[in-house]
Amino acid sequence: MGTSEQQDSVAAPLAGRVIVVTGASSGLGAQMSAALARAGARVVLAARREDRLRELAAQIGGEVIACDITDADERRRLIDTAVERCGRLDGLLNNAGFSRPGPASRESMDDVRRMLEVNLIAPFELSQLAARAMRAQEGGGRAILNVASIAAYAALEPMPEAGYAASKAALVALTRELASQWGRHGIRVNALAPGFFASEMTDGLIDSDGDGPAWLSDLPLGRTGRAGELDGAAVFLLGDGASYVTGHVLAVDGGLLTRS
Known about the structure:
Elements: H1 3-11, E1 18-22, H2 27-38, E2 42-47, H3 50-60, E3 63-66, H4 72-86, E4 91-94, H5 109-135, E5 142-147, H6 162-182, E6 187-194, H7 231-238, E7 249-252
Parallel strand pairs: 1-2, 1-4, 2-3, 4-5, 5-6, 6-7
């Protein structure tokens, strides 16, 4: 590889890759989508709110597919349409999530079922569909990235959420199992475990400036995550820089898990 090609690969490590991102309409999903686009990827933006997806696409490019991933038919439509429009599929970022914190003794089982559908079942089936599409095409660079949570590893006492924690712990186990089974097909499966970032799920706990309650200052880094601080990890795990990394969960949490 010549010097100019090496520079291009560093500047755009995801050049030519088609990556589907769920939950792309706001928060961390929108931020990571923009980061993937800056890294050269053709991003397929998926979420229910088409107006927000189109606003984001106007800024970063890519494809818009409005869909509800809790519906199995919609999941199939998402992957089929992405492949039809883009000609291939190289990556999947399962970012969409649902949480409704509250004491376990009063959690609604309807909410828990929705958490399992959004946080576990949808990523599982989307990963199946994506893997089939990847295996049917030529070329490497096949990667799936699940967005789990530090709640899979530690009880966050000031923010009780048993159903959410259970769904994200199951997603971590799923990540490990898919990595083991699909490595032979050249498909890497990893996960991110974000700590506390400003997002729709932490609205009311963390403001847009990243300021949160006083107890978050006890983190080793003394603050919440800032906008963009998850981006590098996502680009790394979906790109060739992580070509020998699979079945791994990368905590991006300001050191919170060191205190668990």
